[in-house]
């Protein structure tokens, strides 16, 4: 039954990260033809944005070493799908394929900048600056992620001011949207409210933010509700709840797209996704990965 909660946005955009954040963390290497079918099925299920892969160093993330092959196979259907690029080398690889949307990914903490990017906190911006400048000069749209917004496995609590400082620096480089990552899933609703308010106080409205929750502590849906109340209208999620980050041990699966869709439908918030075909896709992918989907909704609806 649809029982809307007053004051929520009428519609949101789901930014699907399963093919990237999900598959980057799988122990088994997924064949490129399976990835291609996964992406095509996600698009067919009505997901408006499907992040496809990462142009990172293949030694760092071997699971996505086939990025160029995947995007070549997707052909014209892939040019508007965002891909991660950490640096100019990654951008060059995306430009060679004519891609139009890239995402840089920074860290709010010193330790994770070193572990994930082999750069200090300050050095990461020096790496991103020419990457974003060149991407924008070539007419590309650039999204920026900032990780460890709610806590860091090595540094513990991360001060809100530190997250706002890192996030605004990434936006100032020329990114169109900032995705706030709860990389290890420790955030809770009040923290989301406070962080979005702190960005607003720094001049970054909810319309420029996206929220990216991992569900390690089972807080992701509650955190989405806090985000909705604060006016955020873009939510990252991963089909079937796949995901994690290979350079953050305590990062488990992302918020499952199916769980998000169930919540939004119940609240009467438009999302445009066909739940049945999404569940069928995640069930099919769980079969390839040889394990049950962690998504409660996929399991409830009879999927793997
Ligand atoms: P580095 O070793 O410092 O690289 O790694 P470098 O700049 O010193 O270059 C060394 C060699 O790597 C050079 O080759 C470069 O050309 C090559 P050589 O001259 O020695 O033959 N190289 C590349 N090759 C292919 N593609 C590239 C590339 N860059 C350099 N893009 C680097 C620095 C950033 C490359 C490395 O640390 C890296 O690839 N990190 C990626 C880690 C990653 O993908 N993590 C997961 C994504 S982040 C995430 O999941 C969080 C998120 O979901 C949000 C959240 O949950 O919070 C987004
Ligand atoms: Mg993530």
TrEMBL record:
A GO term for molecular function: lyase activity
Domain Pyruvate carboxyltransferase: 12-279
PROSITE patterns: PYR_CT
Keywords: Lyase, Metal-binding
Pfam family, one: HMGL-like
CDD domains: DRE_TIM_HMGL
Family statement drawn from the similarity comment of this UniProt entry: Belongs to the HMG-CoA lyase family.
Protein name in UniProt: Hydroxymethylglutaryl-CoA lyase
């Amino acid at each position: 039954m649809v029982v809307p909660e007053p004051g929520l946005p009428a519609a949101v955009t789901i930014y699907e990260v399963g093919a990237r954040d999900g598959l980057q963390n799988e122990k088994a290497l997924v064949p490129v033809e399976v990835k291609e079918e996964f992406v095509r099925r996600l698009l067919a299920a009505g997901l408006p944005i499907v992040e496809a892969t990462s142009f990172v160093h293949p030694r760092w993330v071997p699971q996505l070493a086939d990025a160029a092959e995947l995007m070549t196979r997707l052909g014209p259907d892939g040019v508007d799908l965002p891909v991660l690029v950490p640096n100019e080398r990654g951008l060059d690889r995306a430009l060679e394929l004519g891609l139009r949307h890239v995402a840089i990914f920074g860290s709010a903490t010193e330790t994770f900048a070193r572990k994930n990017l082999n750069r200090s906190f300050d050095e990461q911006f020096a790496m991103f600056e020419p990457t974003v400048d060149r991407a924008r000069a070539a007419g590309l749209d650039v999204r920026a992620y900032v990780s460890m917004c709610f806590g860091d496995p090595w540094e513990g609590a991360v001060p809100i001011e530190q997250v706002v400082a890192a996030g605004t620096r990434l936006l100032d480089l020329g990114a169109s949207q900032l995705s706030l990552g709860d990389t290890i899933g420790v955030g809770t609703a009040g923290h989301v409210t406070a962080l979005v308010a702190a960005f607003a106080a720094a001049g970054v409205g909810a319309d420029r933010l996206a929220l990216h929750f991992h569900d390690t502590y089972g807080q992701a849906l509650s955190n989405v509700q806090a985000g909705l109340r604060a006016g955020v209208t873009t939510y990252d999620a991963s089909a079937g709840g796949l995901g994690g980050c290979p350079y953050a041990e305590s990062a488990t699966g992302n918020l499952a797209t199916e769980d998000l869709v169930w919540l939004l439908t119940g609240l009467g918030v438009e999302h445009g996704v066909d739940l049945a075909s999404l569940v069928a896709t995640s069930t099919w992918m769980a079969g390839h990965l040889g394990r049950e989907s962690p998504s409660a909704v996929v399991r409830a609806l009879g999927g793997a």
